[in-house]
Amino acid sequence: MQSTKTRRKVAPVAENGDSADKLDQLLLSSAICNGEDIGPFIRKAFASGKPETLHHHLRQFARSKESEIEEVCKAHYQDFILAVDDLRSLLSDVESLKSSLWESNSKLQSVGGPLLSSLEAFVEARNVSQNVNLALESVSICVRLIELCSRSNHHISNGNFYMALKCVDSLESEFLDKTPSSTLKKMLEKKIPAIRSHIERKVSKEFGDWLVEIRVVSRNLGQLAIGQASAARQREEDLRIKQRQAEEQSRLSLRDCVYALEEEDEDGLSSGGGDDGNGGSAILGFDLTPLYRAYHIHQTLGLEDRFKQYYFENRKLQLTSDFQVSSMTPFLESHQTFFAQIAGFFIVEDRVLRTGGGLISKMEVENLWETAVSKMCSVLEDQFSRMQTANHLLLIKDYVSLLGVTLRRYGYPVDALLDVLSKHRDKYHELLLSDCRKQIAEALTADKFEQMLMKKEYEYSMNVLSFQIQTSDIIPAFPYVAPFSSTVPDCCRIVRSFIEDSVSFMSYGGQLDFFDVVKKYLDRLLGEVLDGALLKLINTSIHGVSQAMQVAANMAVLERACDFFFRHAAQLSGISLRMAERGRRQFPLSNARDAAEEMLSGMLKTKVDGFLTLIENVNWMADEPTQSGNEYVNEVIIYLETLVSTAQQILPAQVLKRVLQDVLSHISEKIVGALFGDSVKRFSVNAIMGIDVDIRLLESFADNQAPLLSDEDANQLKTALAEARQLVNLLLSNHPENFLNPVIRERSYNTLDYRKVVTISEKLRDPSDRLFGTFGSRGAKQNPKKKSLDALIKRLKDVS
């Protein structure tokens, strides 16, 4: 196929163009061929003001490309013609194929129409089925979700918060992301945190109520635990009393057996108390269920550490509040509540530590206890420093020691508290001594110095047997007149109370062997307080022989009572009587006893002196010796016999012996003094023989006391007259010069003073000698006795 159009020729580039235009044309042609941007060329042309040159270059490039196109078309012209012929030959085949396809399509449409309608029905049914299944699954999920929500609400309404939280956790983990309902999902997202917050508030409120309630429970718990410790202590005391009674009976019996009593502790307090199923204590009656439920709930909520801290801080604040001592109420009235509150607090904390699953640590409890001990010690120091009554201090000490016993069972160290009690031991005993001093003074002031009359056996038991001051184990007939006055049982009760209070203070204070301390203060009570009060009474308030005799009798009874006091102190202190006897001193009331006997003797001497004034009536130059004794000695003996008949009813034999011995010694001194004194210028042998009769009467009186005393004591009474007897024996002796023999003098005249012998011997005159200073008349034979006496006088004067 030939083209009728003429082919355009590309004009050659002018040879005379300048090199710049050629270069620009080449660069433009290269950029177009390479597909580069020709914008820079356009901007350059317009910038230089020569757009025509650019236009010219573009037209030159277009002409050059048109020629190339023509050459390509010419090269492929024949192939194109052949391809068109092939296409025309294929046109008929395409038409036949088209008709065949149309027929096949018609058949397919007729056959596939019903199938297509069936398929469409199937697809629609399958979609409906899938929708129904999805709806059923969604409904099932919603039903389970609603059931779980209902169950959670039921648990919340019943207060079963742990199960409610488990339901909420299941809702969150299993249904929150799977719920098909956006409304339900929004509801869950909103209510789950609200439910958890509600449960936390509820358990926190319950825990707060428990904190309020546990303070009252702790006080009652502390009182109950301390009461049980007190009951256990009382049982121990009763057992010790029975043991002491058994030991005493065994000691008094002839058998060598000692029976030990044993008792079973029927209702003792176990060291930890029994736990019930809820973490409470069935015995001590407190419930930790609200606490443990709150702790468990907070653990479930993931707030365990926060709850631990919250619990510890609140309990610490409660303990600090418990430390407050009211200034409006005396500590004596509030100390039991104060210490019971603290005891109950730490009993609860011990239970929480052992059963709380780590709610509170051992270190935290120990820190709380150290704080409590420090505060209790401070309170005790302050209160003890203010107290001026021993009984008040003892009451608080007893309760603190019971507190220590109670809390030691739970493993708490109480040594610091016991140290505070020991520190105030001296102050307590000083206050106790002061109280006893007042009581003893009142008892002595109230005494009428009359023998006690006991009408009933219980009075005898209360005033005599209870202090072991009886002289016989046989119960007397009633009414019974005791040999002592009311001072004795009154003072015994005061001293016994002092011993028991002292032992009570020293007991359970951490010191096991405290008998020496009790004995030290008992010695002070007896040796300083009681002895001093009795001395004051004797020196200021005793008037008359009967009162003095009663006081002396009281002292004898108190001497037996002192033995009981030391035995009682030893028994209460838990040591054997044999060990206690080793440290016994002499009678602690010896000063008062000696003063009482001295006063009684002094009064009797005064009475006797009144009778001895009758010695002036003696005829010292009598011609005949008297046979019945001089008047003065008869009066003295009558008085002494009357005195003995009265004194033997109340005075012990030894006291009566000492008093009579002192009185007889005084009489002897008075007789010798009368012979030695200036009132007697001279006397005869007959007068001395009369004095000898007087002394024999006095010696006979002493011998007559043997049934009351003993033969030995009666002989000791006679020795009180030794000076007068030896002097009379010397003056009546046929060999007075034997006085110069040391052996004879030591045996027969050991009480005589040689100076008195000289003076008295010079006064002796023979009846025939009427001149002072001579022993016979001139020219008469001198009496050998007189001669021996003169020699004795001369020798004694030479010695002096």
TrEMBL record:
Pfam families, per the entry: EXOC6_Sec15_N (PF20651), Sec15_C (PF04091)
Domain Exocyst complex subunit EXOC6/Sec15 C-terminal: 417-763
Keywords attached to this entry: Cytoplasm, Exocytosis, Transport
InterPro entries on file: EXOC6/Sec15, EXOC6/Sec15_C, EXOC6/Sec15_C_dom1, EXOC6_Sec15_N, EXOC6PINT-1/Sec15/Tip20_C_dom2
UniProt subcellular location: Cytoplasm, Cytosol
GO BP, one annotated term: pollen tube growth
GO CC list: cytosol; exocyst; membrane
UniProt KW Protease keyword: no
Predominant location category: cytoplasm
Highest taxon, organism lineage: Eukaryota
Domain Exocyst complex component EXOC6/Sec15 N-terminal: 57-226
Protein role: Component of the exocyst complex involved in the docking of exocytic vesicles with fusion sites on the plasma membrane during regulated or polarized secretion. Involved in polarized cell growth and organ morphogenesis. During cytokinesis, involved in cell plate initiation, cell plate maturation and formation of new primary cell wall.
Similarity remark: Belongs to the SEC15 family.
Protein name: Exocyst complex component
Organism: Rhamnella rubrinervis
